[in-house]
Amino acid sequence: MDKKDICTEILRLMVERGKTVSTAESCTSGRIAASLTQISGASDYFQGGIVCYQDELKVRFLNVSPEDIQTYDVVSQPVVEQMVRGACELFHTDYALASTGYAGGGMNGIPDGTIWIAWGTQDDVHSLLLTTDLGRDQNTENATLQALSSFLNYIHHC
Fold first, then answer.
1. Which one, of 105, 106, 102, 90, lies nearest residue 58 by Cα?
2. What is the pLDDT of residues 74-95, one digit of tens each?
3. What is the C-alpha to C-alpha distance for residues 88 and 133, in angstroms, rounded to an integer?
4. 30: which DSSP letter?
């Protein structure tokens, strides 16, 4: 399934079930939101998205714990899962998708291509670590596709 087919199926399921979704993105820079909204009818379920590149914005808008950023790094499972919960709260949505990572220019001993993606609800968040480095553009594109396909698989089973 290509990205357009995945997003079309997400739209169908969300509208059919009367559910809403939002996004909280860092390293994917809004690509997840852009992919979802390229399908006609997305306004029937997509509420909004936020690109929080800076740590302070993740804390302020998504309620990410500054202690967790300090302890685990901003590119970590605890942070990306808090981003999902924060987006659900910020946008009042049933579901959210999130990303944080080093698409290029890794830091703190974490290599390029290290990206955490997450999806779910306020009470049921799932996450996945991606570690393949194919260059900045391909890393973000892969993370976007993986987030969308993981979310689709998740909602198929809800």
1. 90
2. 999 999 999 999 999 999 999 9
3. 30
4. T
In 3-state terms, the chain is what percent helix, strand and coil (to 5)? 50, 20, 30
Concatenating the DSSP letter of every residue in 79-122 gives: HHHHHHHHHHHHHT-SEEEEEEEESSS--TTPPTTEEEEEEE-S
**pTM tops 0.90:** yes
Contact assessment for residue 76 and residue 27, using Cβ atoms and an 8 Å cutoff = no
Please, are residues 4 and 147 in contact by the beta-carbon 8 Å criterion? Answer: no
What is the bridge-based pairing of β-strands 114-120 and 125-130? antiparallel
Which of 60, 65, 134 has its CA nearest to residue 103?
Answer: 134
Residues in the chain: 158
Residue with structure tokens 């890794």? 106
Q: What is the pLDDT of residue 158?
A: 84
**CATH superfamily of the domain spanning 3-156:** CinA-like (3.90.950.20)
- Picking from 49, 75, 78, 73, the residue whose alpha carbon sits closest to that of residue 63 is 78
Residues ≥6 apart with Cβ < 8 Å to 51:
25, 26, 29, 30
Structural domain spans, the chain: 3-156
